Amino acid sequence: MATEVVMPQMGESIAEGTITRWLVKVGDTVERDQPLFEISTDKVDAEIPSPAAGVVTEIRNRAGETVPVNQVVAIIGGETGASVAPAAPARPAPKAEVQVRAEAPAASASAPAAAPAAPPARAGSLEERMRTLSSPLVRSMAKKEGVDIGNIVGTGIHGRVTKQDMLDYIAAGKPVRVAAAPALAAAAAGSTKMGTGFHVPAYTAGENVVIEPMSKIRQITAAHMRYSKDTSAHVTTVFHIDFTKVDRARARAKDKFLKANGTKLTYMPFIFKAVAAALKAHPKVNASIDGTNVVFKKDIHIGMAVALEWGLLVPVIRNADTLNLVGLAKAANDLADRARAKKLGPDELKGGTFTITNPGVFGSLFGTPVINQPQVAILGIGTIEKRPVVATDADGCDTIAIRVMSYFGITYDHRLVDGADADHFMNSVKKTIESDAWPELEPYG
Asked: Are 75 and 50 in contact (CB under 8 A)?
């Protein structure tokens, strides 16, 4: 019996996926749950397993093609040795096609001659797809009302048309919410236009360049970052925080902690613990803006940015305020490992109420991160290292001391969060980290 392999729907709002790489070829024998191909959507990158054991008899879509969900992309035959010619060769896509899992360019690569782009998997530019793709509910409403979703300016994430957009459009007969969709569409398309009629070329004729198409995840990230900058009033403030006590506690406990719990004790669980407590004490930082309303989130779900070779993912630690250091360490390490292995589910990448990014692991002193919409703040962690600082003893005498220090930079949306709010929040984080109250580590020395 032949088994159809379909493009899975990785979340309710996902309408398509891009095949980034085939891991098998026609004629290969595969086991059930063996990874067949990799996909990229605007929610997650993932490996898709085989639904059955057998032989790959047909591959219908090449790497680089964007395929609607539930469309058959391959056939698994039940008889060993069965083979039919694939509808499209199972080979890497040519340079003109979109390659999501970007490889380093070959050493012999040179500036390519102008070549015709590969035909898209479906009509419509990226910005049009981002604007018109919507949830099944919205598509059902559009069909019932005879409305072309492409005529509606969406206010949802990445410019998607929401249920409220549809209701407003039906009621008024025109798109009444303009928001920042034009800027979003331009960002999604990689436009370099800076105002009407003004364009800065990326390269000139004859210039020695190599041109590679952006991966899907990079296009989505670019659109989301541009959308955030156009939406929020970004302000950043930086605090200098003493990690000396945390460093000593961690050094004493880390070996026994690893042996007892099967996971490493890094600095991050201490940071998550401090941030979760501060978010509970300062709910405005754990909120979102909806028009002229403030939405206070009762749950504390902390997103942690994970840098990957092919882009950036932000898996979410749910109910972080309910976890101790062991729980936070296990959750963070597990999410990071599975993000790198492309094993995250779409639900693990959404619902965050606050985000932490850690450029310090690459040596950065501090940064000014972009807010992860629809959140109102993001915390950037600078490198944690020994520095000379002025220390004052109990008698008021100053000395130069060597302390383990880090710069924490919080970027916040000034539409809701004022400087005082951000500073009170950061002082709470600083107080927790600089304290020596880590009783959870007593069993580990």
From this structure: no
